[in-house]
Amino acid sequence: MNYQQAIQSCSPTKQKQECFQRRQEEIGSPVTISLQSEFEQLTLDTSPKLDPLTNQHSGILDFIDEIDQEEKFKKHQSLSLQKDLIRRNNKNKSNEGQSSPHSNQSLNDQKFKYIKELWLQESPIQEINKQVLSQRVISINEEQYFKDLQSDNVIGMGVYHSNEASPQMYFEPDIETDIYISSLIDSLWGNQIVSRKLQKLIESGTPEQQLLIVQKLERISPQIQKDVFGNYVVQKIFDSCGDVKLKTRMFNKLKTHFYDLSKNPFGCRVMQKLIEYSQGKEDIQNSILSQLVQNMRSLIYDSNGNYVIFKMLESYDKSKMEFLIPIVEESFHYMAQQIYGCKIIHKIIQQYPPNFIANLVKQSIANYSGLSQTEFGNYILQHILQFWIPSPEKTRLIQLVIQQFYQLSINKYASNTVERALETLSKSELITVLNWLLFRNQTQQQFSYVATNFVQLANHQFANYVIKKFLILIRSINVAIHFKLLNKESVGVLSSENHFARQFQLKFKQANEFAVFWRNK
């Protein structure tokens, strides 16, 4: 059946009139039909409706629609794409409607040509980046990122760009990472959990995350270095971050604040870590020294600055720290009373030859009585006795200690100096000390009888350590002590006292066995 025959079959006939009357009876009056069609248009219901016509007439109308579609398809065939190029939605394949006419191949070629020209144009791409970035939501403090956009290197999570005035690479992150890192940095103050999270990101995070953390920390430096937990994050940068550029970047940010950080209880920890990082790097060492050398006296008198100076003595070549010796000589009396001040003096005595520290040794010997009886000063005398080469100054110090053997031995701190002095004595000098110990001292009486210095010191809570050290040094002449202590009173006292009883019983047993062997021989 062709198109003309289908039209003729649809002309008004008696049969069609009867069908039309039956339809009106079933669905209502023409007014009802018009209202129904208007309602369908208002509700935009484009779904197919059930045709009330018979199956025969319905098939004729469907055939007419197919012919119309075929003519439309032929009309727009020149503008349509090939079927293999048409994108289809697999999810809605069953309900897929008629596709709209597509542009022809020549139009697509023009589009591709335009895109290629836009891609290869010489105008800087940052203008396009600004247009794109202007459409996104700006996060906290993010406007600062867009001020100096001058690069077109796009990497991973954001954009790297640099400023002509500053050669440092600057990173433009994606907004999710920016918000996450910003929230961590904002809540870092006094927060141990956040501090550990940031340290873990610095240690095992991506290079982009590490760079973003450094950028955020730069904005709150040097205040964050003085925070109780924030200082650990900055230390982790110098300790575990693999990017040398990031370490150099943070170093340059803190460069003008070295003195202020050195006097802060938490900032001085960052300075010590920075000094460790500068080992073997001459330029960084010189930069640190240039910032601190003018304020070295102030740091010596500061309880936190002492830590920084001691770390420099440990890490730097001693030739770089020679300027510190005259300053320490001026502040000797003050530094000798402090725990880290005396450590600085110890380190200088250990590292430098006699011609550099002769004045320090002379000052120590001149004040030996006061230094030996203080908590930290006695360590200075011990270092001189241990590390100082044989010299008239060292011999003089030993003589002074032996002359006040009893008074220094019963002091809590000075007894340590006496022990160190005994280690430097020769065998003949030890015998001289033994003769003095076995002398019955009538001026210092602690018992009902006249006891020897040995018995009195052995029963003292501090001096007994001196006697123990002395017995270790004179093992070969213990038999002399045995013969001198044969009186029952001395042996009974030494065996019953808590401080020396155990040590004496062992030594007395060894001396007794040696004496028996010597007699039989």
From TrEMBL:
Protein name: PUM-HD domain-containing protein
Pfam family, one: PUF
Key word Repeat present: yes
Taxonomic placement: Eukaryota, Sar, Alveolata, Ciliophora, Intramacronucleata
GO molecular function: mRNA binding
Biological process per Gene Ontology, one example term: post-transcriptional regulation of gene expression
Record key words, sorted: Repeat
GO cellular component: cytoplasm
Keyword Calcium belongs to the record: no
Domain of life: Eukaryota
Pumilio repeats: 216-252, 253-290, 291-326, 399-435
Listed PROSITE patterns: PUM, PUM_HD
Domain PUM-HD per the UniProt entry, residue ranges: 157-512
PANTHER family xref list: MATERNAL PROTEIN PUMILIO (PTHR12537:SF12), RNA BINDING PROTEIN PUMILIO-RELATED (PTHR12537)
